[in-house]
Amino acid sequence: MSLGSKRQPPRRGRRDEAERPFWISFSDLMTALMVLFLVAMTVALLAITHEISATEDLKEAREEDITRLMDSLKAATADFPGVAVRGRVVDFGDRARFDSDSHRLNASQDLLLRTVVPRILAVARDPLGEKWLKRVVVEGFADARGSYLHNLNLSLQRSERVLCVLLAGPPAPAALDEADRLLVRQLFLVSGSSFNALKESPEESRRIELRLEFLELGEGRPPNRSQPLDGDFRCPLDI
Could you tell me the pTM of the whole model? Predict the structure, then answer.
């Protein structure tokens, strides 16, 4: 057999060369998809980070507004020695102590409440107050003497006594005007704590505090369901 007629083995290189462009294209496609995925993830993370940053800015602005409101209230109550604004609580201290096992206040204590609370209502009518103030909780407290349930009822009665004092109309001394009494009914709630928050002495424990609560971000203001004043100023505690 001549050398010219000797069959040459097939060249496998051509088959490899035919397949190689396909694998190169598939690899490029996977790389492109990975790049697109990374871009999408980056955009999503940036959006989330921006949203978190915006929310934090709103929270910080809310806290600054509330701090300004409480500073205004401190200034408004500075004329009343013994009445202190601590955090978001108005503490009447020795100016509104109750006798043991009693929910009654004397005439000077009534007058103090009717003089201080309009200052709180003025803050509530402030633009920042209208924006953030949710409610004012009247909290009554008792000392450790007596049963828990008895003191729970007594502390509620002490809170209710404060509302009775504030809603009393003329001829009560320094009675709130109709607009203030309507706002009291709208904003003020009563709460009793029995002896869950004792002070150092029994006398200090028998007290009244006004705790201001504020709206959270995105929280809607409760609807105003206040009815017109009915003219019945009698306190149920005295009937």
Answer: 0.75
